[in-house]
Structures are given as C-alpha cells and as structure tokens.
Design a protein that fits this description.
The structure is a homodimer of 232-residue chains. With 232 residues, the first copy, chain A, is an alpha+beta fold. Helices cover 44% and strands 23% of the residues of chain A. Chain A contains eight helices and eleven strands. Chain A has helices at residues 2-12, 26-33, 114-123, 125-151, 154-168, 181-188, 192-204, 221-229; strands at 37-42, 47-49, 57-63, 66-71, 77-83, 88-89, 100-103, 107-113, 174-176, 208-212, 215-218. Chain A has a four-stranded antiparallel β-sheet. A four-stranded antiparallel β-sheet of chain A has the order 2-7-4-5. In chain A, α3 (114-123) crosses α4, α5 (154-168) packs across α8 (221-229) and α6 packs across α7. In chain A, 44% of the residues are buried. The interface between A and B is large, with 45 and 45 residues. The structure holds a DNA duplex (30 and 30 nucleotides).
DNA sequence: CGAAACCTTGAGCATGTTCAAAAATCGTGG
DNA sequence: CCACGATTTTTGAACATGCTCAAGGTTTCG
C-alpha cells in the first residue's frame, strides 16, 4: 500500500498524461461528461468488472492504476493495457465486456452510463466527435502493440515498456511500477523470470537503476530507445 | 494472376462478410457515404498508401484483398489485418498513416475524403454514431489479436487464423488464401517455415486438405476450435 | 515480528528460428 | 499449349531464445 500512496499524488496532478498532445485530452472530455459520472473506489486487486460482464458503462480513471486482462481457458493471461488517471476504457461493440478491469493499486474511477452518454451526444455532436477520435487513438495504440508482441525480442519489449511508462510519468527519469513482474510479463507476452532477468541485465549495463522492485530510474534513455527499435 | 481471378468473383458476391451480424454493416454505412466516395483500382502487390503518408481519406474494400503492414527499421514486418470486401480502414488519430496498405490481389477500394465525411457527419449525427461503433469494433478485434500474439502457441495461432478466414468465407468449408506463407507468418508473428510445417501437420492429422497452397478445405472444424483455445 | 507473497537467480529444456536445399508452382514467351 | 526461369513452398538439420522447474532472497503487510 505504501507504493500506491507514493504514486497516486503525482498522478493526480497530471490527469491527462496519456494524451499530452492529443486532440481529445481526457480533461476536456471529462468536463463535458461531468454531470453524469458516478465515482467509484476500487481496492487494490479488486475487479471493477469481469470478462463477460454486462457492458452498460464507460469509465475513466481518476487516481490509481487499472489493468485490462483477458484470460484463456487454461489460465494464460494477456494484459491489454495499464490505465492511468485521465485514461478512458470500457468501450465495447456488444453488450459484454471482452476483458476484465482490475485495480493494480487502490483506484478511483468514474462510470458514465451508456444511456446517459447517448443522451448527451444526441444534443452535443462534438462530444461524439471526441469519442470517435478517442476510439481511433486507442485502436492505433493497440495496433502498435501488435508489432511489439508479434515481432520484437524480449529485450526490445521491455525497453518499449519502460519508455512507455517513462512518457506517462511526466518528465522525470523516475518510473513507478506498481504492478508485479507477472503483470509486466503478461503485458509483454513473456514470463516473470524473463522480465526479472532483463531488468537485471539493463541495470548491469548501466541503462537503469532499480532502487526498489517497484521503482526504476532511467540512466540512459537513448540506449533504451536504440534497443526498442531493434538497433541493439 | 490466375489465383486472383479465381478469388475476386466469389468475394464480389459477399460484400459484407466481415460484419455479418454487426450493428454497423459495411453496406449500410457505404450507402450513407455513397455520393462522396472515389473508386480506385490497386494492382496486386501495389501500395495504396505508404506508412507515414498523409492520412486524408478513409477507405472501404469493394473487391479483392488489402493487407495493412508495419515495418521495423531492420525489415521485420507485422501485418495488422487482411481486409475483405466491406471492410473499412485507414482511420488515424493524426495526419499520417501509421501503417502501409497494399493489395494482396488486384483490388478495388473506395476512398472517402475526411473533409467530406466531416461535412456529412455534421448534418447526419447517426453516421457519426456508426463510425464510432465501427472504430470500437476494430479496437476489440485488435485486442483479441493481442492475446493471439502474446500468449498463443504457433499451432493455436494458425488454427485461429484458419477459423477466422473460414468465418469470412461465408459458410463453405473451402478457404481461399491469396496471401503468401510469408504474409501469413507476418500476420501471426511466426516464420514462413513454421507456417508451412504447421499446415503440413494439420493436413497429416486429417484436420484439413490442401489441394493447393492457396486453397484449403476444412475437414474437422471442431478439432480446429479445440486447438485454437489451447484445449489441444 | 513472522508468514505469505513476490522477486531473483540458476540449470536444463522446448518451441520455434535460422540456414540450406529440394520440390512445386507461377507466369511469361515461344 | 507447353517450356523454362523465377518465385514460392516444403522439408531437413542445427541452433538460440525464452520457458520451465527449482531454490534462495527480499519485500509486504497483518
């Protein structure tokens, strides 16, 4: 819980980190939706909704971190995304959620009922435009991840992950990693052991410090960028 | 060229295979956009647009097959999707295409200028609603592929691919595969050799026939479904 | 403070890759 | 319609990356 306490405050002050230069910053959209949201606390490890649950709302993270997970019948897991304050999620084409949403740390999310959103968009077409832009942006991010999972090596994947978390940490060289090594592995299509070994290797190469399993300091960002492209 | 000639006609008669039961069938959306599209022929192997090209239009496949590709600096390639008649593509959050679009077979696509779509949606909010539903559907499909690339074995990936192509072939047990083994490998995050070996293994297990490298007949769909889940 | 969970490290192994060559198919030109 | 060179597909053998299984350390949290 201490880890979480250390992360939430900085996150609160950067509510739209994930879309720093986007056409649809989370804050703006959130303002438009302000009156119709229901705030909800989700404790660390708890499920906001399960895979297959009725999808009647969209959500936005206010504080904390949410992970979206899919499970295969035999227990293999893929994490689709780690969501930070400002991020929207829960869009579904059908009436069921196609993945579970769980809290990595104690989190606050706002739920917007679809029926209420439909009412709002009917009278406010620019809101719909923003939602479309947001969905397209998320599509593009998912497609970028296809390259990572389909074609990158383990080292390249971890370098990409660290850079991604670094960008979302808003300007510092310090990255908080509240999720477990297993979470990182399930996000990158690797095993816990491989992730752990690669962290050690990057530390031994002087590319990063690991003062704590859940906190890293990037020492050589350019090296990470070279590794992440496959320049090696 | 004979392969393409054999495939295009059947494709023409099933223009919306990819969204057979969708809330936003390609045909309906296409009708709404009818007046603003510009038809374009793309020859086998040719590029409709390059990665990084200006993204000023959205597209729909009319006939043939389009592949969306991303390249890494060293030449590794990931195919994001194979698009069939009825499928929309080319949505981008920014002003550049984040992947190339190339014709697998001689294809006809319709291009809709973004500026014209913006005009249409301004006067027709339900069109925007349909575009949003379409984008969310594509997001969901991309997320499904993350599980495939992140967590499935080579055999499971190929079984998923065959089932996907089967669904899109509209009811028969015969699947046309106009793309090369390398294309399939780049779609599934494997190598050409592995794909070829797995096809051979499935044939030897009596699960499918391969009368021709570009045509397969599914003999045991249930076996494919079991394999694709990881039930093995 | 102590038990449980998580992280790290090691050694052996398996899946899928790489490199190489043979077989099949394609597609043009006679 | 057939022949021939180019391309693609298939098959084989050796190899490497990342996984599995196992044990020892560290961190978490009641």
């Amino acid at each position: 819980m201490r880890t979480q306490a250390a992360i939430a405050p900085s996150a609160i002050h950067q509510p739209a980190i994930h879309q720093p230069s986007a056409a649809v910053p989370g804050g703006e959209l959130a303002n438009a939706l302000n009156t119709v949201g229901a705030t909800r606390l989700v404790e660390r490890g708890a499920e906001l909704y399960a895979e297959g649950a009725a999808a009647d709302s969209w959500y936005q993270v206010r504080t904390g971190m949410i992970r979206l997970c899919k499970l295969m019948p035999d227990g293999r897991r893929q994490i689709e995304a780690f969501l930070l304050p400002g991020d929207f999620f829960g869009f579904e084409p059908g009436n069921e959620h196609s993945f579970a949403a769980e809290a990595v740390t104690d989190s606050v999310v706002v739920a917007y009922r679809r029926s209420r959103i439909d009412q709002l968009t009917a009278s406010n077409p620019s809101l719909m435009q923003r939602l479309l832009t947001l969905a397209i942006k998320q599509l593009c991010e998912a497609q970028q991840k296809l390259v990572l999972l389909g074609r990158k090596t383990a080292t390249e994947r971890l370098a990409c992950f660290i850079l991604e978390m670094l960008e979302r940490s808003g300007g510092t060289r310090v990255v908080n990693l509240p999720m477990s090594r297993t979470d990182i592995a399930d996000y990158l299509g690797l095993t816990t052991e491989t992730v752990s070994r690669l962290f050690t290797a990057l530390r031994q190469d002087g590319i990063l410090d690991l003062p704590h399993p859940h906190r890293l300091v990037v020492q050589d960002r350019e090296a990470l960028e070279e590794i992440s492209d496959g320049a090696q």
